[in-house]
Amino acid sequence: MDYAALSANLLLVSFIAYLVGTFFFGGAVKVSKTEKTYKDSMWGKIGIVITIIGFVSQLGYFITRWIASGHAPVSNMFEFTTAFSMMLVGSFILIFFIYKTPSLGLFALPIAIVIIAYASMFPREITPLIPALKSYWLTVHVITAALGESILAISAVAGLIYLAKNVDLTKKSKERFWLEAVMFTVVLVLGFVVSSTAFSLSGYEADFTYVDKNGKPSEMTYNMPPLFGMSEYEQVTTDTMKPWFETPAIVNAKTLTTFVWSLFTGIILYILIRLIFRRPIAALLQPFANKANSQLMDEIGYRSVLIGFPVFTLGALIFAMIWAHEAWSRFWGWDPKEVWALITWLFYAAFLHLRLSQGWEGKKSAWLAVAGFVIIMFNLVAVNLIIAGLHSYA
Amino acid sequence: MSKIKCQCGHENPFGTVLCEKCGRPLTDEAKKSEMVDMRYEGSARRSQTYKKSVIDKVWNFFSSVKIGVSIIIAVLATSAIGTIFPQKFYVPVSGNDPSEYLEYYERLYGTVGKLYYQLGFYDMYNSWWFKILIGMLGTSIIIASLDRVIPLYKSLTKQRTKRHPSFMKRQRIYGESKVSDSDESLKNAEKALKDLHYKVKVEDGAILAEKNRFGRWGPYVNHTGLIIFLLGVLMRGIPGFYVDETMWIREGETREIPGAPGYLLENVDFSVETYSKDKADEVFGEALDKNGAIVSEFKSDVKLYKEKEGSLPGSSDVEFMKEYPIVVNKPLKFDGYSIFQMDYKTGELKTMTFSLMNKKTEQSVGEFTIDLNDPANDYDLGNGTSIELMEYYADYDGIVDGQPSSKSPIPNNPAFIFNMKTPEHPDGEKSFVAIRQTLEVEPNDYEAKFLSAETRDASGLTIRKDKTLYILLLGGIVFMIGVIQGSYWQHRRIWIQKGSDSEMLIAAHTNKNWYTLKKDLDKVKEVATLPTYTDKQDKEAVIDTTEGETK
Ligand code: HEM
Q1: DSSP string of B107-130?
Q2: CB A212: neighbour CB atoms within 10 A?
Q3: How many angstroms separate the CA atoms of B90 and A333, rounded?
Q4: Distance CA B435, CA A186 (A)
Q5: Closest-CA residue to A377 (of A77, A91, A121)
Q6: ipTM of the complex
Q7: pLDDT tens-digit readout, A21-47
């Protein structure tokens, strides 16, 4: 059997299932007056069943890809991010069975969908492992860390619902601004997906040679019109556009180009949404969040940090140290990726202490949960693509 | 300081807020409040009680969670600064010359990079102030924990089943009302609570149901784990606890292992393998097409030897220990040491072969081979012809002060001064020979012409010994036990008691996860008639139930 092809199809199935699941959770929230009456709603029951089908299908993707490649599919950006989205849905299912709240599904599934779409923009072919990555400890470390991060992410979802409900959107305020900023960031990710897909469908390619930061000649292929050129670049493909700027050697102009195109597309998308609905995105979401019980969302936010924090510690710090010791001969090396895992950990430790002893509940706690998710995403996206260290997948 | 005597007769330590036994509020503030702070059971904490002497002030500083969190945030923020540009460790500058580092940061990152270097951020995790921050973190963890765990332990063991109504009323979850048969209710409640796995104590018309008290110790256990870990890190400073060395070893070489006296290592063979398209599964085909060769393995086949007991250091009196292929992720381990495959160099020059040519006839009169790591002084080519190697520069670096100079003893760019003795020139003709370059003082009749070279690989290994690893691991395990204990088990208590007349009071407390506590209460209420309770913190609960019921 061709496991690789099967695997790709299973991922597609789960993607569609999450879309449909979101729709049903939306229905559940719409028809029931409050969180409490949800239990009678058929919509929510169908929603969770479809979500579970999607999750099982994605698990199938994971397992078949593992069989096809012979190693755990967490070895590059596409694989890791997809695994993260799978665990995010898994964590949602877990929390759903504790708290039975469809509002959480209505917000969690779209986030998983956006993450899968984001992941799919990276090279999807199966790559063999370089020596440092050949280790069982690495597999255990990455899977546990991703699981911990996904449980922690649920607290951000609950936090967002809490904020969408409790921030007064009728008046101008810092909170309103930041909530809309979070929504804008999500649109930005969509901008990345849309622009990458568009250029890749058009088959755009532009080859360059340049001089890297150590003074060595190198080559680079752009898949988007090059707004920025690498340091001392020379065009190889001559019929493509000439970059507007040349960047210093430490800047990866290709990444910068991708970022600017995504930003550009994201802004257009955002303006379109604003023009069509004539309201901020946060205000569009508010009716869906209003049904949620604030106290319950606050509780879920805290509980998922409590469940996720130990898992994260085990995966991202302890297993990571054991692996690092086997692979690099030292259990800790202050590599950027390591440091950002430590920062994430310290941040959630601060969250727990503030909540426990300073009584930071409600809005403050919700904002912290959202900030925690931002840090996790920063580590996944920015540290990999910009501050490249030993762990860089790029 | 004097003890505080409660109306119930119990003597509480000075500073107590809620009586250890019956829970009556003892301070004015507590008496006035609608909800009391139950975090440490209103016990007398040193930091809340003594505030005068210097010791008190230091103690109070470190035991404050506000300060603790500030320290955590400070570590977090400074750690982030350290990731902006690469740390010293990752900078490809050999040696310890500060100006080369400065040059590196300035060249790549401009003025900001220069500033980054000058402020010491390029090696900030080893800076004194970062170490002090970590030290403060440790101190804070120890003091804050001691300040709380002892009084908390005392009051939890002293608590009485029957509490004073004033205590009950000030709980977050509280309810009171008349019930028809309070004894019946109590009996049913006791059973229901036992079914929910609560430990139930009954005394004088009052129930105390308690669950998972040990979860309360979680933070203190995890803090202990952190302290063990930090101590482990400190202990690396002790001589013999920690070895971190690197060595380069060429194929065929046997060398003493730095940091591991008495041991020798022989590099039998070093190899690099790449994934080949026909051999690897088809699945990798696409990736290999796109990325070119991908390395699958670096391997050093080595033999380990130990010097025999009583032999002089450096003698060849050695004992074979074992043979092992070191690959990445599979270090060679012996006697507490681990040797890791870290780096490699291929194609280092090993020998060079020259032929001695007569320039006019273009005839070779003989060949000679120079071992670049151990060159001989004379090479006899027979028939009265020989080569004298007058000077050898392994890593020729041009002329410095009128003299040819060598950068290092590694044969990266060998250069020679030969004296070619032939029957025509018994005193010899001198010639300077470097790669692609021959210099002669006067035109010679003969020249040494480069024929071929042999290369070999060198393997870069790291030698590590870390006796603190087990301490660190212990710290990690203790931390995990504590954090799981504190996060996955919540300390819940439910008090139910008869008030005056046929009144019943119910109150409940949990250190976290109130939702599940309420679910427990609702289950008890299904079998026992009990007052309706309210959660003073859930303002939407009322709306929620009524709205839900109208649907
Ligand atoms: C990296 C450092 C630290 C970590 C990982 C850590 C971890 C934790 C965790 C997981 C909890 C339990 C929280 C909960 O159950 O919600 C806790 C509680 C606590 N921590 Fe820390 N902690 C750290 C540093 C500190 C510091 C510096 C202080 C100093 C003030 C401190 C004081 C406390 C206190 C007072 C509690 C509450 C104990 C209780 O009320 O039962 N911690 N800590």
Answers
A1: HHHHHHHHHHHHTTGGGGGGSHHH
A2: 15
A3: 10
A4: 60
A5: A77
A6: 0.89
A7: 998 888 888 777 666 655 567 888 888
Contact criterion met (CB below 8 Å) for A360 and A354: yes
**Which tokens is B142 given?**
């120890």
Element holding B515 (H helix, E strand): helix B514-527
Which chain B residues contact residue A334 at CB under 8 A?
82, 87, 89, 125
Of the candidates B530, B497, B465, the residue with the CA atom closest to the CA atom of residue B205: B497
Taking the C-alpha atoms of residue B430 and residue B413, their distance in angstroms, rounded to an integer, is 20
A282/A301 Cα distance (integer angstroms): 19
Say if strands B385-393 and B378-382 run parallel, antiparallel, or are unpaired: antiparallel
Polymer length of chain B: 551
Spatial contact of B138 and B233, defined as CB atoms under 8 Å apart? no
B-contacting residues of A 115-134, CB under 8 Å?
123, 125-132, 134
Specify which residues B183 forms β-bridges with.
Answer: none
Interchain pair B340, A328: CB under 8 A = yes
DSSP string, B242-262: EEEEEEEEETT-EEEPTTSTT
Contacts of A356 (CB under 8 A, 6+ apart): B39, B65
Asked if residue B548 lies in contact with residue A37, where contact means CB atoms within 8 angstroms, the answer is: yes
- Strand ordering across the sheet containing B385-393: B378-382, B385-393, B415-421, B429-434, B437-440
> Cβ separation of B288 and A354 shorter than 8 Å?
no
DSSP reduced 3-state for B475 = helix
- The answer to whether the Cβ–Cβ distance between A353 and B68 falls below 8 Å is yes
What does the alpha-carbon distance between residue B51 and residue B63 come to, in Å, rounded to a whole number?
12
Report CA B389 to chain centroid distance, whole Å: 53
pLDDT of amino acid A87: 94
Q: Quick check: B280 pLDDT over 90?
A: no
Q: Cα(B130) to centroid of ligand 1, in Å?
A: 21
Q: What is the pTM of this model?
A: 0.84
Tokens of A36: 């409490």
> Looking at the predicted structure, is the pLDDT value of residue B151 above 90?
no
Give the CA distances from residue A367 to residues A186, A342, A359, A364, B492, in Å, rounded to whole numbers and listed in that order: 16, 20, 14, 5, 28
Looking at residue A109, its amino acid is L
Number of A/B CB contacts below 8 angstroms equals 171
Other beta carbons within 10 Å of A147: 23
B372 and B354 Cβ atoms separated by less than 8 Å? no
Query: Quick one: tokens of A48?
Result: 């969770």
The answer to whether B447 and B359 have CB atoms below 8 angstroms apart is yes
Q: What is the dihedral of CA B250, B251, B252, B258, to 10 degrees?
A: 40
The pLDDT assigned to B527 comes to 83
Pocket of ligand 1 (CB under 6 A): A 346, 349, 352-353, 356-357; B 39, 65, 68, 71-72, 137, 140-141, 144, 148, 219, 222-223, 226, 483, 486-487
Residue A223 structure tokens: 């898949």
| Each residue's pLDDT tens digit, B446-487 | 888 888 888 888 888 888 888 888 899 999 999 999 999 999
A22 with A51: CB under 8 angstroms? no
- Residue A361: what residue type? E
Across the interface, do B329 and A326 touch by the CB < 8 Å criterion?
yes
Closest CA to B439 of B475, B391, B488, B485: B391
Q: Which of A86, A89, A75 is nearest to A124 (CA)?
A: A75
- Residue reference for tokens 């950068």: B407
Spatial distance between the Cα atoms of B551 and B546, rounded to a whole number of angstroms: 9
CB contact at 8 A, A331 and A321? yes
Q: Give the span between the Cα atoms of B227 and A6, in whole angstroms.
A: 49
Q: Is there a contact between A243 and A251 (Cβ–Cβ < 8 Å)? A: no
Interface test with B, best of A37, A346, A391 (most B CBs within 10 A): A346
Q: Which residues pair with B380 in a beta bridge?
A: B386
